Amino acid sequence: MKVGAIGGGNMGEAILTALPRAGLKEAGDLCVCDIDPRRRERLAREHGFRVVDNAGDVLHFADTVVLAVKPQDLDDLLDAIAGSVTPDHLLISIAAGKALAGIEARLPDGARVIRVMPNLPAVVGAGMSVYCCGRHASTRDRDVAHVLLASFGKVREMSEELFDAVTAVSGSGPAFFAYYAQALAEAGVASGIDAEAAEELAVQTMLGTARLLAEGVFADPASLIAAVSSKGGTTVAGMQVLGDGAVSDAVQHTIDAAARRSRELSG
Question: Do 105 and 150 fall within a single domain?
């Protein structure tokens, strides 16, 4: 199996670089197309990928092709490559908000398609990817997608009906967590800590907390909160502010807005 990506941005690059790192593919079995000649040159130089400037060339080279363009560019791309798609191709779309039905409608009958919502932590091998299969994807296609996605993080298969919520929670989630880290650091600066130290405190605390939860040291977030909260202590004082409902409401409104935009993108 040869793998290609149409779109060599952050996610396309992260997916392709994960495969050799996981021992699944050699760089020579990977092909990427990007419209930016400087990015093509860097991808070839740094990773040893085969690079091309025409999307059709990726389909001629690879049988598994990741569609890693921006959502607003996907329809034009599908129209451009439809004539090159054969029954031998598995297409994996990571375009946020673009539904399977709309993708399949622009491709030849029987096209094998899998839709994926990955996220940016894939760049450091800590991604969260959720996928669903199109009407003609086989069991083997499902297995191929799962192995490919697992090379750069955790993977779940979920119903496409949930993808707008998935996009909001895990696709957009890194930006929301980064916003909180920024706010935490800024509050530290306002309390007298220098900016560099405040950012380190915020980021490392977020990283360590995530590991405590991910590695099962605590059963759930509520258990971790209870462990840190001593009666009458500093954490309880802070949690009384967070727990007044304003933060929970803001998070719900944030997820609702992101999910609503995902629905709009899917038409």
Answer: yes
Residue 265, H or E segment: helix 246-265
- Predicted local confidence at residue 151, as pLDDT: 94
Could you tell me if residue 30 is left (phi over 0), alpha (psi between -120 and 50 degrees) or otherwise beta? beta
Alpha helices (runs of H) in 33-131, residue ranges in sequence order: 37-47, 55-61, 71-81, 100-105
Cβ proximity of 70 and 12 under 8 Å: no
Measured CA to CA, the distance from residue 18 to residue 122 in angstroms comes to 8
Whose CA is closest to 114, among 150, 140, 142?
Answer: 142
Tokens of 57: 């060339």
Place of tokens 């935490």: 184
The reply to whether 155 and 175 lie within a common domain is no
- Exposure pattern of 47-76 as b/e (b: 16+ CB <10 Å)? bebbbbeebebbbebbebbbbbbeeeebbe
Residue 199: pLDDT above 90? yes
- Secondary structure element (H or E) that encloses residue 130, with its range: strand 127-133
Residue 43 has a CB neighbour count (10 Å cut-off) of 24
Provide the residue type at 179 as one letter.
Y
Whole-number Å distance between alpha carbons of 153 and 56 = 29
191 and 83, same domain (yes or no): no
Range of the domain at 97: 3-162
* Residue 222 confidence (pLDDT): 96
Neighbour count for residue 81 (Cβ, 10 Å): 21
Q: Are residues 175 and 125 in the same domain?
A: no
26: helix, strand or coil: coil
The dihedral built from the CA positions of residue 236, 241, 243 and 244, taken in this order, carries a sign that is positive
- The tens digit of pLDDT for each residue in 33-73 reads 999 999 999 999 999 999 999 999 999 999 999 999 999 99
